[in-house]
Amino acid sequence: MLVDKISQEIAAGRTEGALNTARRAVDRYPKSALLLQLLGVAEFKAGLNDAARQSLRRAVELDPSIPENYFNLALVDLSEKRYASAASSLEAFLRLKPHSAQAHLLLGRAYQNLNRTQPAIEQFRQAIVLSSHLPLAHYHLGFAYQSQGNLDAAFKEFEKEIKANPEFSDAYLLAGNIQLERGNTEAAEGLFRQAVRLKPDSFEVHYGLARALLARDELAEAELELHRVLALSPGNVEAHYILARTYQRMGKAAAAAQQFRAVAELHERQRGEQSGIAARH
What is the CATH number of domain 104-154? Predict the structure, then answer.
């Protein structure tokens, strides 16, 4: 009865109620791995990560045969970028429940962040075997291939992600970068425009589109996109520099000089900040 009540409160988003009920239940039944699991989930949802980790570890100690405890513990560690601990928990989860596509995907992400690219690729592939349309699986596999310099394989995976998950902007962005590197400027522009449509507040997608437009000698449009980049990311040194070079190509010497000055000022500010950090240490 208590388990059902806590589960329902968690599912309904009533985190505070779930937390209070779970605490009382664990006080009453301190050796219940299931109640500790629910307490850990409620604590995690409430942002109490240390408490959640402690509850879930206790649940594992009480009953190491429950796979969900390892999975939930991994989620807590992933939220704090504790990738080695998350990987260990996911490995334990998969020993008990080897056909979870989501767990393979998360383990691949943990490995990738630990610079274990080949094991990450193997996990992403396994996730896709288990669920070919799993959101972000093809994207992360493509990203891993790209980090190895295997752009052909990466691009194919980004295409698959776009087909399976057409509202995810980052797949268009990375596919556009590859097309631009290949010299396929028209295709790159189309991909970047899709990314801009989906994520108009991202300076990265506007910057990608600006680069494609510059490669196609569409200088006026590129200028507008670079201004959008700087509106979203005012201290972006690279965007200031590219805008200066764009103005040079347009014959706008004064505007170019202004942007070069901005680049110099930003470099000087960064050097000052770095010196301050070095002095504090």
Answer: 1.25.40.10
Enter the tokens of residue 102.
Answer: 């989501």
CA of residue 179 relative to chain centroid, distance = 22
Nearest to 174 by CA among 159, 184, 186: 159
Domain residue ranges of the chain, discontinuous segments joined by +: 1-98, 104-154
3-state helix, strand, coil in the chain (%, to 5): 80, 0, 20
Instruction: Using alpha carbons, select from 175, 180, 179, 248 the residue that is nearest to residue 211.
Output: 180
**1-98 and 104-154 share one CATH topology?**
yes
Length of the chain: 281
- Backbone φ and ψ for 8, nearest 5 degrees, come out as -65, -40
Residues 181, 183, 189, 190, Cα dihedral to 10°: -100
> Is the model's pTM score more than 0.85?
yes
Measured distance CA(73)–CA(88) in Å, rounded: 10
- The pair of structure tokens assigned to 135 is 């959101």
pLDDT, tens digit, 9 for 90 and up, residues 188-231: 999 999 999 999 999 999 999 999 999 999 999 999 999 999 99
pLDDT of residue 276: 57
Distance CA 4, CA 26 (A): 14
Sign of torsion, CA 272 274 275 276?
positive
Other CB atoms within 10 Å distance of the CB of residue 267? 12
Q: Is the distance from CB of 115 to CB of 147 less than 8 angstroms? A: no
Contact 13, 26 (CB under 8 A): no
Which tokens is 193 given? 């425009």
Diameter over CA atoms, the chain = 78
The yes/no answer on whether domain 1-98 falls in CATH 3.30.230.10 is no
